[in-house]
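Annotated sample (chain length 100).
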Amino acid sequence: MALIIEWTPKAIDGYISILQYIESNFGNTASKKYAESVESIIQLVSKFPGIGSIKYLDLKIRSFVVNKKTSVYYVVESETLKILYVLDNRMDKDTIMRGT
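Output written by the structure step:
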């Protein structure tokens, strides 16, 4: 059974920002393709939450690569898959994850 999917405000902001960047630089078709990839991955992870790589064991944060430039970071809380961030892989994730 799939987990309930919940997006944090930071995840939504990051996702929208990436979609806007892709659309403005590569067009609507590329943006839609990226959105479909993200949605597909999130649906897969909601069914099999353990497939993501453990990135921050102490925080129980896992990630799944969307493509070579972006990843989805999430935690599982009870029956919920909580999407924490959608980030560019070139960003300093340690600073973001630890809130500093």
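Annotation: The beta strands are 4-7, 53-56, 61-67, 70-77, 80-88.
Annotation: Residues 63 and 79 are 18 Å apart (CA to CA).
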